[in-house]
């Protein structure tokens, strides 16, 4: 593995939570501490999960063998329904049976659709709190990004989702983003955001440079008259499309001023 070596050819180590860990050099040149014990534990866990998935797949294949030779599942299901009606001595037209089923389904939907809608609303609130709150509290945005938080969220918010109550990030290809330091584990919000920004084609326009000269850099902490955010027309024109749309929306609400 490409570990970092000192002038004497010895592996360079880094102190992480009281442990001396070797420094690993990634293909892009970035250096991170390599926790071998954590990596081995993760590999063991993933092997166990793979075994579980394989056993479930084998069980599913065994169950499907019972249906070999059935070319038209829909026709087979319809035939079984007709036979069931005859077995139950319900000599009624199959169409009438379908009507009864449809009415029953309609009744259930009427009862549970409000519950489903409420659940979706609560899910949206959870997303807004976890994802929106994470953007608002981000140390990376506060220290490294030149454009306002809402513009950063407008650009990268779609890359984050809440799964089982946890924040998960995906890249432009929809693949989950994993930590560079905790190998095999998902990246937390701050690390995932930094990775997304680092691979963003227009990152030079949104990151702070020397003297905060990025495309969204603002004087006086970005505050205009009356406490409103203030950006110049030149800064607006230099922003990526997603950030421009967010800035325009803020301007329409009167919370941001675009000056000439």
UniProtKB/TrEMBL annotation:
Domain DUF6651: 118-223
Entries under Pfam families matching the protein: DUF6651
Signal sequence segment: none
Stretches that traverse the bilayer: none
Coiled-coil stretches: none
Composition-biased stretches (Gly residues): 211-227
InterPro entries listed in its UniProt record: DUF6651
Domain of life: Bacteria
Region (Disordered): 207-260
Biased composition (Low complexity): 238-251
The protein's name: DUF6651 domain-containing protein
Organism (species): Xylophilus rhododendri
